[in-house]
Amino acid sequence: MNQSFNLSIATETIAKDAQQLGVSIEDLENISIEVSTEIIQQPALQLMLTYQVTLPTKF
Q: Rounded to 5 degrees, what are φ and ψ at 51?
């Protein structure tokens, strides 16, 4: 079984976070996080997570 999904940055404190990091809110919103999961049943049950983080090019 395979599944992929995208995560997004929480927005509750995004303005404060952007200010602390010295970047714009848009820069933080443009960070992309993709997570792929795979369940492997042999030899023992395992959950494999693969993350890919893409940052805006100006970072």
A: -110, 140
